[in-house]
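As a warm-up, study this chain.
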Amino acid sequence: MPSTSELEALYRRRGAATFGARLRRWLTPPAPFVMNPAEPKDFPLGRWNLYIGGAGRAVAGYINLDLFPMPGVDLAADAEQLPFPDGVFQRVECDAVLEHVRRPEQAMREIQRVLAPGGYLHLVTPFCHPFHEYPKDYRRFTPDGLKELAAGLEPVAEGWRTGPTATLLVFTIEYAKLVLPFRWWRAAAHGVLGWLLFPLRYLDLLFFRTARAGRIGNHCYLWLRK
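Now compare it with the structure written out below.
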């Protein structure tokens, strides 16, 4: 399991301005997924909005909360015990976090507590995705599973953020790295396969239009209203 210092060092390396860091970013292949253009993004922001799990990124308009104090984090706290009064946030983003939470039911109770009446919650979770520890990885979700977890909130939109082609590409790259014995070989395989395979990701723009995308979808999303 990565330690706090290891995770912080990872985020700092990603954003470093040294020549070596810039070279790594230039050589890094494009992501093996394309976002679903039909996913809604226009639900209103309020005066106060909460982003859970945004370490290493800038999230304008939100209080950025994560488990550890890292670059981009405004407040270090546990999602299972949010340090805010009831009903204060008009919008809460919880993007690829619930798989890392030991007690997602408790985290969801806390999110519902701090969400204002009429406010919106945006959940994104993996379904078919490799194991990844940040710092732990406990579970996977389906859209129906998210609805059960968020019982008491009204679903207003759902779908797949990243589709079956993303699943195929991610697992192909991870499988190649799994069978290689040396770290630099794995890094090279990640780069080479990433550049070779990424054009296939656009096939998901076709799958998003069908009901079959969820059979082996990569990440699902759910918008809910309190």
